[in-house]
Write a structure and sequence with these properties.
Helix content is 31%, strand content 26%. With 362 residues, the chain is an alpha+beta fold. The strands form three sheets. An eight-stranded antiparallel beta sheet has the order 13-12-9-10-11-14-15-16, sandwiched between helices. A hairpin with a 3-residue loop joins strand 14 and strand 15 (349-354). The protein is globular.
C-alpha cells in the first residue's frame, strides 16, 4: 500500500493535534501509511503532534507563509495540504491555484466560506429563512441604544470575527455594553465597529458538524456542549472548546444545521461547523456557520473509531480519502450514536463515556 504524503498546518493547536492523532489511529487500523509534515507558529506547541517532520512557520498573514508551504511540498514530495486553523485555511484557499498547478490536492471550501464575519452570516441566514438571533451591527455609540430598543434586554454582545466566544458577554443595559466596548477598545483588542449585539439565547449550547463533497453531505452529527474549561474565571463562562459534550439525537437541529451550511455555500465542499443556541422556547437558533473544523471534530471521530474498532467513524480519515478523490466506502451518511460523552481535562486525558461504561481514549 502506497504512502500518502501530507502537509498539515497548525498542528500544535488542539484541533491540529486531534487531526494528526486521528490519522495515526487510521494507520494502525487500516494499514495505510501517512508521511506528515507539520507546521505551526508556536515553537513549543509544535512538539505535541506526532508528525514525521516539524517546521516552524510564520503567521498566516506573513507573505512568507505560502512560500514556505510551497517549498515544503516541493522538498518532501507532498501530495495533499490540510490547513487546520481557519485563518490559515482561508489564506491557503485564497492561493489554491498555486498549489493545484503544482499537482497538490486540497479539500477546502471557497475562501469566502471560511471564517466569514458573524454579521455577514446573520444576513445570509435571514435571507435563507434559517432560524438565527436578531442582530444589530454597531457602527456608532448610538447603535447600542437602538439595539436595546429593538431587541430588548438582556442581550449578547460579541465580536464579528473570531472563535471561542471571542469578546462575548451577556449585557443587561446599554451602559454595560458601552463599558465593555470601551474597555476592549482602550486595551487594544478591538474597535467600536468590531462588535454586534444579538438577542440573548438562554437555552442549550449545540453544535452541528458536517463533511461535504461537491455538494453531497457525507457525514454529520449533533452534540450538546455541557461544560467549558476554566469557566469560573471567564466573564461569559465560555472559553472555546468544551471539556464535556455529548452526542444527541436532534433531527430539528441537524436539519437547521444542514440548511445553515447551504445558506453559506451553494455547493458545500469540505468540513463545515455550525454553532447553535436554543431560545427560551427550546428552538435551535444558528449563531455561527464556518467552513472549518470544530476543535473536537477529529477527536470525536478518533474516539468512536478507537472504541468501536471501526475506521469508518474516523472523520479525519474519511476527509483524507475524499481529498484524494476516493470513495470512503460508506453505505449511508455517517453519523454518531447519541448519548456518548466526550470528557476532557487538562493533563488528565480524554474519556468516552456511555451509560455506566467508559473508555480511556488518550
Amino acid at each position: 500500500m502506497r504512502e500518502r504524503r501530507i502537509l498539515a498546518t497548525g498542528v500544535g493547536g488542539i484541533g491540529g493535534c486531534n487531526f494528526i492523532n486521528a490519522l495515526r489511529l487510521a494507520e494502525r487500523q487500516t494499514g495505510e501509511r501517512f508521511f506528515i509534515v507539520g507546521t505551526d507558529f508556536n515553537q513549543y506547541h509544535i512538539l505535541f503532534a506526532p508528525v514525521d517532520v516539524r517546521v516552524r512557520s510564520p503567521r498566516h498573514s506573513d507573505p512568507g507563509f505560502i512560500k514556505l508551504l510551497l517549498s515544503l511540498c516541493e522538498k518532501h514530495g507532498l501530495e495533499f495540504i490540510h490547513p487546520h486553523p481557519s485563518v490559515e485555511a482561508r489564506v491557503v484557499a485564497e492561493n489554491a491555484e498555486l498549489f493545484r498547478e503544482r499537482g497538490i490536492r486540497l479539500f477546502l471550501p471557497r475562501p469566502e466560506e471560511i471564517a466569514p464575519t458573524k454579521s455577514y452570516m446573520a444576513c445570509r441566514l435571514r435571507e435563507h429563512g434559517v432560524p438565527s438571533p436578531k442582530t444589530v451591527e454597531i457602527g456608532s455609540w448610538s447603535d447600542i441604544e437602538q439595539g436595546f430598543r429593538e431587541l430588548g434586554s438582556p442581550l449578547w454582545i460579541r465580536a464579528k470575527r473570531g472563535a471561542g466566544g471571542r469578546l462575548g458577554l451577556k449585557v443587561g443595559s446599554a451602559e454595560e455594553a458601552r463599558l465593555w466596548i470601551k474597555l476592549n477598545v482602550m486595551q487594544g483588542r478591538a474597535r467600536l465597529n468590531d462588535f454586534i449585539l444579538q438577542e440573548y439565547l438562554p437555552g442549550r449550547d449545540l453544535a452541528y458538524d458536517s463533511l461535504w463533497y461537491e455538494g453531497r453531505l457525507v457525514a454529520y452529527y449533533c452534540r450538546e456542549r455541557l461544560e467549558y474549561p476554566f469557566k469560573h474565571i471567564s466573564l461569559s463562562g465560555i472559553t472555546g472548546t468544551p471539556t464535556i459534550a455529548r452526542t444527541i439525537n436532534h433531527p430539528e437541529a441537524c436539519e437547521i444545521g444542514r440548511r445553515a451550511v447551504e445558506a453559506l455555500s451553494t455547493r458545500p465542499h469540505g468540513f463545515y461547523s455550525v454553532d447553535m443556541k436554543e431560545n427560551a422556547e427550546g428552538k435551535p437558533m444558528v449563531t455561527e456557520v464556518d467552513g472549518k473544523w470544530h476543535t473536537t471534530a477529529p477527536l470525536w471521530g478518533y474516539a468512536f473509531a478507537k472504541t468501536l474498532g471501526n475506521p469508518a467513524y474516523n472523520l479525519a480519515y474519511i476527509y483524507i480519502k475524499l481529498g484524494y478523490s476516493e470513495e470512503p466506502g460508506l453505505n449511508e451518511k455517517l453519523t454518531f450514536p447519541p448519548d456518548y460523552y466526550l470528557v476532557r481535562q487538562l493533563d488528565a486525558g480524554v474519556l468516552l463515556v456511555h451509560g455506566d461504561k467508559h473508555w480511556r481514549i488518550m
